[in-house]
């Protein structure tokens, strides 16, 4: 196959620019490029910003492939119009969470959309047609599960989940990260687990379906948990991961380590070992060949986790302190003393994100969460004792939320404040396609509702107060760019994650890892510091 495919990462670009997470390079588009190459296509990865600045780079390609989220419709439409102007007769392929919404697909100009994971649909296209262009011309391409077209009105079944051996066959793209702004300072996500083990169901769905009380999703066999008698989607009511990506499949230690090593050798300084739950890593191997559909049992696979962390944290750039390994989400119900000790041994000083969502056990049970409030408190205590920095996620405006639930969340914030929590991220509930809660309305902003406003104010106060503990502290940072709002200042990101840091310095320092001391708190997301020393230049800009 000689088709040339441009894969464009439009995730989180919304109307054409990012408003947060400016320093993130996700794993999904890199996997798409790697798998296309595995199939024999010529594929290259570009960021949305790169293409907007260099639109003529698209002229050498036969296919435009776009990866985007639900909120990125405007940016996707901009890219589609650009392609139609440059390459009016050549196909557009859409992928990513955006394709879960038939209404958005109906409104966009495209030829093929992949709904769900890309591997098995692309493999079948390669075998049946030999090219994406041929597939785009065939109205029967929709017979492939996971493929939809404009003729279908954007409606299509979710693709089959790629088995572990398929995910292991290819290497995600590495060099494409260099087409992102300040890539050397970005958090580059490396997928270690695909899918989620929480196959609990919420007690209700947006269309009136109600739990029958059969309890199969909580106490049935691992196979029985895959199905619900009333077809309520698995997982938390606001999340589509278990339905779209299935139970966890862990990548091998060697494949992850090889990818991390290649990224570090390229000049990446911050690698996130990405998973819906880091503690699911290797748990699927403990129940194989059964699907891992229980979020609580068996306990974490400590041997697999320790082997992975030992190997990635002993890579040269990490041991010399010019790069960092990070993780994100953990389920509180899987955190025990042994887990905390192992994480602390290899990741001391790094954040760990805990999805608490609410301080009300009653609400957590209704929405399908597997952990309870006291388990969250215990997990925070264990992780802090082990030298980690727990960050907390909360959500306001969830369906069925009451004033009682909001008061419990407010009490929870007061409790964790005493534990010295550094950061709470408060989200507003957003209904997403293919979830149990997709048809519920989005609630007003927190400041527009009395109970939620109190919660918002408490979270904001905690976050601002916690920043004061940084005053006088030294952080190792990587310098990303100049700061456009203040002449003579640079933007830097802490290697081990933390608030964006402003530093006075020369643009010649961009691309360097430095030691800085924090001198001023600008906001709950921004601090200002002074460069103490330059450790190493990572990238030539």
Give your account of this protein's structure.
- The protein is α/β, with parallel strands linked by helices.
- The protein folds into three domains: 4-167, 3-Layer(aba) Sandwich (Rossmann fold), CATH 3.40.50; 182-252 and 263-299 and 317-468, pyruvate-formate lyase- activating enzyme, CATH 3.80.30; 474-537, OB fold (Dihydrolipoamide Acetyltransferase, E2P), CATH 2.40.50.
- It contains 18 helices and 21 strands.
- The protein has helices at 28-39, 48-53, 73-86, 102-107, 119-128, 132-137, 164-167, 216-219, 241-245, 253-266, 283-287, 302-313, 316-319, 337-347, 361-367, 373-385, 403-418, 450-468; strands at residues 4-9, 24-25, 42-47, 63-67, 92-95, 112-114, 147-148, 187-191, 193-194, 249-250, 270-274, 324-327, 329-330, 351-357, 389-396, 423-428, 474-482, 489-494, 500-504, 512-521, 526-537.
- A six-stranded mixed sheet has the order 3-1-4-5-6-7, sandwiched between helices. Strands 17-18-19-21-20 form a five-stranded mixed β-barrel. A four-stranded parallel sheet has the order 2-8-11-12, with helices on one face.
- α17 (403-418) packs parallel to α18 (450-468).
- The longest helix is centred in the C-terminal third of the chain and has 19 residues, at 450-468.
- It is globular.
List descriptors:
Rossmann fold, OB fold (Dihydrolipoamide Acetyltransferase, E2P), alpha/beta, five-stranded mixed beta barrel, 541 residues, six-stranded mixed beta sheet, 21 strands, 3 domains, pyruvate-formate lyase- activating enzyme
